[in-house]
Design goal:
Elements: H1 3-25, H2 27-45, H3 50-80, H4 86-123
The structure holds adenosine-5'-triphosphate (ATP).
Binding site for substrate: 7, 45-48, 67
GO molecular function, one term: kinase activity
Subcellular location: Cell membrane
């Protein structure tokens, strides 16, 4: 195997390990994982269309990306500033704010995409 390919495989494994570590150590990440499974299951059950799948997958992806960056920032802050510091607080709160913004976006997408077919299903 060429050196380039083995370096790529190593990078890929590191990225998967990062996701796995965040999933194991962060309860918010576990919540987002469970929410993503529930949304995908609801999408299949309600047979949403192609464009709706794009919105749902975009919403899931942005929340995951924000939560992964939030976890990374928490780790770096804890390493750089084990004691209390206003800048450490600002960094963590800002990263948490990013997760909140993406979560609100995901809720809006979920209501718009899944709301009407869910309503039709339960109204019958
Ligand atoms: N070193 C620090 N200096 C000042 N404030 C901090 C520091 N560490 C954490 N905080 C404050 O405590 C809050 C909670 O921090 P914590 O590290 O427990 O993260 P969290 O948001 O609870 O995430 P999680 O529960 O997913 O680990 C931060 O948002 C911040 O306001």
């Amino acid at each position: 195997m060429s050196g380039w390919r083995s370096r790529e495989i190593h990078s890929f494994r590191c990225a998967i390990a990062g996701i796995y570590a965040a999933l194991r150590g962060e309860r918010h990440m576990q919540f987002h994982f469970a929410a993503a499974i529930a949304v995908v299951a609801a999408g299949f059950w309600l047979q949403v269309g192609r464009e709706d799948w794009l919105w749902l997958s975009a919403a899931i992806a942005v929340v995951w990306v924000a939560e992964l960056f939030n976890t990374a920032i928490e780790r770096v802050v804890d390493m750089a500033s084990p004691g209390m510091h206003p800048l450490a607080k600002a960094a963590k709160d800002t990263a948490a704010g990013a997760v909140l913004v993406t979560s609100l976006f995901a809720v809006i997408v979920g209501v718009i995409v899944l709301g009407p077919p869910l309503w039709d299903t339960f109204r019958k």
